[in-house]
Amino acid sequence: MAGIDRDTPIPSEIKLHKKSRRLELIYGEAQRYSLDFEFLRVYTPSAEARGHGAGQETLQTGKRNVDVDAIEPVGTYALRLIFSDGHDSGLYSWDLLYNLGKHHDELWQEYLKQIETQGLSRDIDTSSRPAAGSCGHHH
Q: Residue 78: which of 117, 46, 125 has the closest Cα?
């Protein structure tokens, strides 16, 4: 089955913390990862964000306040996260979630570096469909 091998750790528990905007993955006694929604949204595995190969990724911007409205299991190998900005095409396989947890710090630094290098913002969404005449305050 795609996206999983025998050695991929599967969380024994998954908790959605809406107030702190975090998804908590618990692996047995010893390991737990707490991934914030912005991080998960930015690293969505969806094809539209990832493009069709290295270097074709669309850098996701303006996701600082994104929420996860729901989580749906996909078979036994992935989770679909339904985000408040309408994004729901990313399937987060167990190995992806584990790697996001494990490499969180360097991935996050990498993202912040890209945002800075490209002069983009975590508060202004330039990666989704632009709303005509909006000044970025769409609530």
A: 46
Conformational region of residue 104, where left means phi above 0, alpha means psi within -120 to 50, and beta covers everything else: alpha
Query: Against a cut of 0.90, is the pTM above it?
Result: no
Q: What confidence tens digit (pLDDT) does each residue in 108-124 have?
A: 999 999 999 999 999 99
Res 134: pLDDT: 41
Nearest to 2 by CA among 102, 101, 91: 91
To which H or E segment does residue 17 belong?
strand 13-17
Distance separating alpha carbons of residues 117 and 97, to the nearest angstrom = 26
User: What CATH number is given to the structural domain containing 110?
Assistant: 3.30.2020.30
